[in-house]
Amino acid sequence: MRSERLVALLFTLQSRRSATIAELATALKVSERTMHRDIAALQATGVPVWTEPGRNGGVRLVDGWRTRLDGLTSREAVAIFAMGVPRALTELGLGTAVSAAHAKVSATLPAPLREQAQHVAQRFHLDAPAWFRKEDETEHLADMARAVWEQQQARITYGRDDRTVERVLDPLGLVLKAGVWYLVARTDGNIRTYRVSRITAVEQLDEQFERPTDFDLAGWWQQSSAQFERSLQCVQVRVRLSPTGVRALPSVLDPDMATQALKDAGPPGPDGWTEVELGLERPGIAAGQLLALGIEVEILEPTAVRAAFAEAARQMYDRHR
């Protein structure tokens, strides 16, 4: 894109004392005619570019002038400008900082690049929560974020099932997953996950803690999430699916898990139905999930899931006859 090329030209001129049109054209992989037009475009935006004709002439920036976008690629500059202030960062107390960065980048972007960023902002938007699901109420998210930033211990009151417990934590990080905030914290030497919406009270303590030098939040979360998913898939369920059931399975169960199960399945039988092995939760939950497939599924085993499915179907029939 031309706007990206203009920023690349700006950085090239800033890194060199002087360069000829031919050298700049070669560096940016454009024709000399295009380079003349790009230099004129920079000059039109107010960038003090001087051109000197003659044998020893060339193109250079006015001595002492530098862009304040050092180290940013053009794509990075566009991303910062177009990002605005995502709600997630505002909830963490970073809204003002992002607004300030946005204003600084905006003030230094050449007009063509600023226009491109505005186009991006109008065409792409991130909305983290899943459909048909409200965001969690996270009254104490900012308090936990402050404790994370300052490496300060915190005492929390946490709702668990039908009771509440108190914990003294070393808050290590916060994770936003599908619109839900989770706190990753160390307590009693173990690292655990807490749903922020279930925290009913926070007291920030005076004691600071040493963050584990080998702790990587993203890596730990990925490993912990995979382990959690495996723990839920404790029942192997064998089912038969009609062609309609095959198509519907990824919308009923976890899409990745369903897609992999369908890949591992054999070819359809003579009647067009396909046998599939699924790793699901305990029998009652598994039967409830598969009910969404209605008449497009037959549960073969285990008996407990088949019986739970049949009982639920029987109750539905009795209620509607």
Automatic annotation (TrEMBL):
Keyword set, alphabetical order: DNA-binding, Transcription, Transcription regulation
Residues in HTH deoR-type domain copies: 2-57
PROSITE patterns xref list: HTH_DEOR_1 (PS00894), HTH_DEOR_2 (PS51000), WYL (PS52050)
Matches recorded under Pfam families: HTH_11, WCX, WYL
The organism's place on the tree of life at top rank: Bacteria
Single GO MF descriptor: DNA binding
Gene3D superfamilies found in the cross-reference section: Winged helix-like DNA-binding domain superfamily/Winged helix DNA-binding domain
Full protein name: DNA-binding transcriptional regulator YafY
Higher taxonomy: Bacteria, Bacillati, Actinomycetota, Actinomycetes, Pseudonocardiales
